[in-house]
């Protein structure tokens, strides 16, 4: 997805997202638990921050 001069793409050979902006790249890795989300915060048409949240699923053990 291209937004202005920014390019956001999901890498096909890795479980990650690349954000290209102003000649630099930022790689966002998938959550280690496999459950979570990344939210991109925009300000004045530019990417300002990324908020990462991760969920940890509780496994019930039967006794």
Can you walk through the features of this model?
By secondary structure, the chain is mostly beta strands. It has one domain (2-54). 0% of the residues lie in helices and 57% in strands. It has strands at residues 2-3, 6-10, 16-21, 24-29, 36-43, 46-54. The strands form two sheets. It has a four-stranded antiparallel beta sheet, with no helix packed on it. Strands 5-6 form a two-stranded antiparallel ribbon. A hairpin with a 2-residue loop joins strand 3 (16-21) and strand 4 (24-29). The radius of gyration is 15 Å and the shape is elongated. The chain starts with a strand and ends in a 9-residue tail after the last strand.
Mean pLDDT: 79
Report the helical percentage.
under 10%
Query: What Rg do the Cα atoms give?
Result: 15 Å
H-E order: EEEEEE
Beta content:
over 45%
Structural class: mainly beta
- Number of beta strands: 6
Low-confidence stretches: none
Distance between the termini: 49 Å
Give the tally of structural domains: 1
User: In what order do the strands lie side by side in the largest sheet?
Assistant: 1-2-3-4
Oligomer: single chain
Largest sheet, strands/sense/barrel: 4 strands, antiparallel
Q: What coarse outline follows from CA principal-axis ratios? A: elongated
Number of helices: 0
Region (Disordered): 1-36
Protein name: DUF3954 domain-containing protein
Biased composition (Basic and acidic residues): 1-12
